[in-house]
Amino acid sequence: MQRYFVANELENDHDTLSIAGENFHHITRVMRMKVSDQVFIVFPSKKTCIAAITAINEDEVLLSLVKWLTEDTELPIKITIASGLPKGDKLELIIQKSTELGAHKFVPFKAERSVVKWDEKKVVKKVERLQKISQEAAEQSHRTLIPQVQYAASLKDLITLHADYDYVIAAYEESAREGEDSTLFHLFQTIQPGQSVLCIFGPEGGISEKELQLMQQINTKLAGLGPRILRTETAPLYVLSAASFYFDLSKNKNS
After folding, report:
1. Are residues 97 and 215 in the same domain?
2. Considering only CA atoms, which of 104, 102, 17 is closest in space to residue 60?
């Protein structure tokens, strides 16, 4: 069953729900749905329901509530993935797979060692494309929110956001080489449900010394992600997979 995010809440269970725009096109032209077909609808409040199509007009689909669902598909902590711009389509992969794994937000940034440079005139379109990838992945993985994408022009701009987070960590290659293996685990043991963490990852060339000094000014914790050196597109998935195991599987087993 298809899943769609809508912008407005359903104020009354007996109200008619209207879907237009891209979702209308997807329902009518891509999926070729008909009256009585059912879909999942996710509201801004993260509430989810099953709704049935009651009418298909020229520019909107009308639906009625079938039943409310009780869903708990989000991680209990809010993880923001901040990736130094990587080469090729790696950023798209990071956003797609990280959304499936439960990321809360993305902040791609131009790192000192990023080979890729975004034309300032094209930033808005690039972010829109990444946002679309995030939305499609959220629909596919039955998320109850769409992770937002926000661009930062440098690490300096990125760390100005640190006050919005309870914790800040950075995946640092040298920490892995030195055998550091406790920062991430300690974070999971310490962080409380509802709290947030900004996770910073360098591009292919890693984090520069200047960037390291900037991060240390805001008390960023450096984390080694196991004994192996991970690619820039693999490291965020490692962190999110570890979080999912710790909070979704281990906690449930112990409770």
Report:
1. yes
2. 17
Domain that holds residue 242: 78-251
Q: Give the tens place of pLDDT for each residue, 29-60.
A: 999 999 999 999 999 999 999 999 999 999 99
74 φ, ψ to 5°? -95, 150
Owner of token pair 């939305």: 135
Record the tokens describing residue 41, joined without a space: 């609808």
- Residue position matching structure tokens 């930062």: 152
Q: Do 132 and 231 fall into the same domain?
A: yes
Query: Hey, is 172 helix, strand or coil?
Result: coil
Strand residue runs (E) in 8-150: 17-19, 38-42, 48-56, 61-69, 78-83, 105-106, 148-149
User: Does the pTM of the predicted model rise above 0.70?
Assistant: yes
Please give the tally of structural domains in the chain.
2
